[in-house]
Amino acid sequence: MNTVKNMKHIAIFDFGSQYTHLIARRIRELGVLAKIYPTDIKALKLPKDVIGIILSGGPQSVYDKKSPRVDAKIFALGLPILGLCYGHQLMAHTLKGTVRPGKIKEYGRAKLTLQGTSPLFAKIKKSSTVWMSHGDSVSKLPKEFKTIGSTNDCAIAAMKDSARDFYGLQFHPEVHHTDQGLKILNNFVFAICQAKKNWQINNIIDEQIKKIKKQVKNKKVFLLVSGGVDSSVAFSLLTKALGSKRVYGLYIDTGFMRLRESSEIRKFMKQAGFTNLRAHDASKIFYERLKGVADPEQKRKIIGQTFIDVKDVVAKKLNLDSLQWLLAQGTIYPDTIETGATKHADTIKTHHNRVDAIQKLIKQGKVIEPIADFYKDEVRKLGTLLGLPSKMVNRHPFPGPGLAIRILCHNATDEKQVLPDISKVRLPITNYHILSIKSVGVQGDNRTYAHPLAITSNKTWDALDKISSNITNATKEINRVLVLLNRTRHPLGILGAGSERSVPAELKDLVFNFPNEDRTLTLDRIKLLQKIDNIVMQEIQNAGLYDKIWQFPTVLIPIGCKHFESVVLRPVTSKEAMTASFARIKRHILKRITQKILNTGKIDYIFYDITNKPPGTIEWE
Ligand code: XMP
Predict the structure, then answer these.
(1) What whole-number distance in Å separates Cα of residue 432 and Cα of residue 512?
(2) Are domains 9-192 and 201-401 of this chain identical in fold?
């Protein structure tokens, strides 16, 4: 096998798309090395072993003068080039086509219909599902180009100049939700770039161990362990590279874990053979610092900073000489990309391991993140290869800030919300209610913070999926769609049937108010969510659904009519968290969950989140 340095590879130019790394990942999955390059690299500086170029997506508009460009000479290198999303638009723009803001923006699922033939689409079905996330569109092709695919709302969804092997796709073949995406990339890599297989995951382990040894030298590492798959794999890799005497694990209990989870994690880690692990209960200081805080980004920043402060306190207690230790984190790629860590990327949310204090340590070379280039599914593969128990490797992901970002907060003194007027927007439904809370989303590679729309409907999951996309595509004021599962005493929405349909389901008449007092991160609210989250997880386990669902956040929201607390169920299926679909759980199971949650006597409404990612993110904050 070649060394990575001189290996033939595909160069990916990173325009800041949330998916740039995913493109590299997919190509590596195909068995070919791919590397990411900054967009301002000069064509002549590209290494000789580049056999093809991919221009990634990005959050900007090409007609904005400040948006990133490429050295136009890359189009004269004689290499095949594939432009994706922004990359597709940039290719059109640079080669003298036209890009305009699309009349209709597309986020999420779309149907692609192919035209003519092309090596990029060899053995691809004439009609298939693709994943879109864009506002602008190519409106006029550059000379020599032909359209080879379109969707309902995007006439030039795919284009080619076969003489020069240039291809552009408005959609994202790299995301799991584009049905034939991997086949399309396969065609580009093997048929068009004529690559030969030169990459496999076992190489990654050896490669990472070498990297760890090189970075740590003769020092030791102090790892923040959460009990989840990421930090466990990082722990295992570090231990393999450095030996257990040089790796010290610290589990910080934030108080925002699931019910009884902290004690289970300690047991679990012991069983998995991790001996060098210490647990520290820091819940008091986390609660204290988050008292009264409602803004999601502020909450995230406080949590990240508190992790570091607690780590420092413990390190001091242990008399650790900071010059002799590096901080290790089980950061994985989505944590960095969604924090806006790459040059052109927007900050979607600040992950707990990317706050300022950590960024500072990173700059000083004091942080080691052995799995920061990987996605969850790769990390799981690594975990299995490293011999970790499958129960640990296959746990649902759980975010570092835990339930703190699943409890939406409200300050009574905040200015009264003026809800957007969407009465003129053409929506596929008429019976809806805009909720006064907001949640984070990601659209066209940018962060959104907007209102959810609550609806009731007895339609099929397929129909609901379309309704949801139609709504979020039609107006930027709404980034999520929720189906109401109950109306106190009268089950409605997707659980409704028979006579229940005759209950007047006028959502506009229901009350979804904030309470008159503050609702922030109090112990009572944390306990309430722990209880409800536990009901949900138990039911999912009992129904044999745990392994079928990728992640299942249950979110507490401070609105209602009596208790002013409601719940959103947010189960998703995903492969690596960069894209996700809402999960489709059988209705009798939802009915049982809903009933059990209502039996707590503390909840007014229960909603089911039918938003894919994009436009919603998995977590609400
Ligand atoms: P979103 O909500 O951005 O989440 O779709 C993608 C994945 O990342 C997890 N997540 C986090 N994980 N620290 C973490 O360790 C964080 O601050 C954080 N925020 C989100 C989320 O649960 C999902 O799996």
Answers:
(1) 12
(2) yes
